[in-house]
Amino acid sequence: MTAMTRRDAIRTTGAAMMVAAGGAAMGAAPPRPKPLVFGHRGCSALRPEHSLGSYAKAVADGADYIEPDLVITKDGVLVARHENNIVETTDVAAHPEFAGRRTSKTVDGEVQTGWFVEDFTLAELKTLRAIERLGALRPESQSYNGKFQVLTFEEIIDFAAAESAARGRTIGLVPELKHSTYFTGIGLPLEDRFLATIAAHDYTRRFSLEIQSFEIANLRYLRQKLGRPDNVRLMQLIGDGSVRPADVVAAGGTLTFGAMMKPAGLADVAAYADVIAPSTRAVIPLGPDGRLAAPSKLVADAHAAGLLVRVWTFRPENHFLAADFRNAEGDGARNPAGSIAEIRRYLATGLDGFFTDDPALGRAAVDGL
Q1: Which residues contact 288 (CB under 8 A, 6 or more apart)?
Q2: pTM for the full model?
Q3: With helix as H, strand as E and coil as C, how does the chain read?
Q4: Model pLDDT for residues 126-136, shown as the tens digit of each residue
Q5: Which tens digits make up the pLDDT trace of 350-367?
Q6: Residues 233 and 272: beta-carbon distance below 8 Å
Q7: How confident is the model at residue 29 (pLDDT cuts 50, 70, 90)?
Q8: Given CB 3.0 to 4.6 Å as the disulfide criterion, which of 43, 182, 287, 366 pairs with 57?
Q9: What residues have CB less than 8 Å from 59, skipping those under 6 apart?
């Protein structure tokens, strides 16, 4: 399928579904498909992120997709952690046998101190347990500290396949390749291991898979290797406007995320990706008072380029909400009604999907439209 016909296909998916169902009359505007709910690191508002408990809760609460962020062990196994520094998300600091591995490294230009996945074998990581990253802000999740292991990507694929079979619906996977340039630089490239893993599993060969990265070169490589199978989309994540992707920095380039969000930049992204995923505030920014301002043109411009639009990340605590939606219960209080209202304000811009730390609230926002 050519780039143009694929963009046309994205625009007309709703119409094709209606025809297949014997639906709308000729010339009628097709209904817009419901936005997809992506469980951000599972259900990370209520369970330690990237744990089996987090993924299970996300599926039970109606997530269309669950997200494993992928990093790599010393012995070359892909595991789910948001960062390769595991000091905030595991109990590694409580393991005296690993005290000597505490170190400082520069990852994508940022100096970090802690313990790093690439310094551990899988067997060693399996002795650790997940903990809540945001501590007392999420007491329910914190109550599950110490109960779950670090998961491999293959274990998550098997979990999604089992849940799909049990529930009679597809559980999509939205893996993110983390720090690709960094891992290549230390001799542990992610991409070919990732491709081999998804090729080895019937579930990822046939069912919904959206592959994310903040970098560009790895997505281009995956597009070259994968082609355009019907079950796979590539998602270009977008960071702060003035920031350059890590692979662009490493190559001495000048391209910023801000430039990628302009019409010409979006056209370039559409040549290799299917989806653009900016932060929520790139779609509707905050004003000086912390309330939502006027929406940007990003969603319309991305759709014009043939790209779907997802945003990250909705969180249910007052601390993270725009001032419009906070209640009087305090900065750290959980505010489900406010989160649902905020999501719905964003959905009105035409989003095709969104990441949320609490998929039950995302489901409520979508199903109540």
Answers
A1: none
A2: 0.91
A3: CCHHHHHHHHHHHHHHHHHHCCCCCCCCCCCCCCCEEEECCCCCCCCCCCCHHHHHHHHHCCCCEECCEEEECCCCCEEECCCCECCCCECHHHCHHHHHHCEEEEECCEEEEECEHHHCCHHHHCCCCECCCCHHHCHHHHCCCCCCCCCEHHHHHHHHHHHHHHHCCCCEECCEECCHHHHHHCCCCCHHHHHHHHHCCHHHHHCCEEEEECCCHHHHHHHHHHCCCCCEEEEEECCCCCCCCHHHHHCCCCCCHHHHCCHHHHHHHHCCCCEEECEHHHHCCECCCCCECCCCCHHHHHHHCCCEEEEEEECCEHHHCCHHHCCCCCCCCECHHHHHHHHHHHHCCCCCEEEECCHHHHHHHHHCC
A4: 999 999 999 88
A5: 999 999 999 999 999 999
A6: no
A7: low
A8: 43
A9: 39, 66, 163, 167, 171
Nearest alpha-carbon partner for 175 in 50, 281, 88, 352: 50
Q: What type of residue sits at position 49?
A: E
